[in-house]
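Margin note: ligand = adenosine-5-diphosphoribose.
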Amino acid sequence: MADAAPIPLGLIESLRSARRICVFSGAGMSAESGVPTFRDALTGLWERFDAERLATPEAFHRDPSLVWGWYEWRRMKMRLAQPHAGHRALAGLERRAAQLTVITQNVDDLHERAGNTNVLHLHGSLEATRCVRCAAPFALPADIPQEPEGGRRIEPPRCASCGGRVRPGVVWFGESLPMPILQPAHDAAAACDVWITVGTSGLVYPAAELPLVAARAGATLVQINPLPTPLDAHYDHVLSGTAAQCLPELFAQERDRASLQPGRS
Ligand code: APR
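Resulting structure:
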């Protein structure tokens, strides 16, 4: 791999002096672990569907076995995936930093499997299933779903207490984000010294508003993405590359540079 571009000294300084750091991740953070991004997950049975039409309460009501099959296929992909060097670098940062909050739009558990303990899931979690009628939590079987590559229709299980259908624990389009998650995410954004966005297109609100909350609060803003995004102009530093490349490199250079400065460890 070509030598990574030197990380700007200003960013190294900001990271070193930061007391509170927030990392805001999207589907691109999980891409190198083999979890298809939201829009890439439209293959096989779901090829002719538009993601936003599948991930809605109306779609589940209209065709529950199609939607449940899609989420079981995605859950299989997630369970077969392993955290990559970028996830591990963030877990390492949590052990070193004064305070790290990971705010993710992802419904997988790769941040937690890498070792991060302070993770806020804005869009829910694939494992946190519940009854669509009485909201009773539903425990999924522990084993990894065995789904055909092209996907299949699966009738959702039924709730043990009211017989209602069980739905995925994700936030669907048209649904509000859970306030018990959105409020602490907003507070962390407003209080952080450094904000690192990685692997999101910044198109979906209200999540995409959070970097602007951090900017207004005076945080140093960093974007990691191999492609430009509509919010790049709001960032102090844009690192063009992937999550698995840039995150380990960023913290390695921060540590190396620090050790070169007398009296710093
Ligand atoms: N490393 C870093 N970024 C990457 C990588 C990678 N390896 N691969 C792709 N990306 C970037 C893409 O350039 C793109 O900007 O990740 C972004 C993925 O964008 P989306 O697919 O739109 O995913 P996301 O931003 O998370 O979507 C937001 O919308 O789809 C709904 O609820 C879903 O949480 C999701 C939300």
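The chain has a mean pLDDT of 90.
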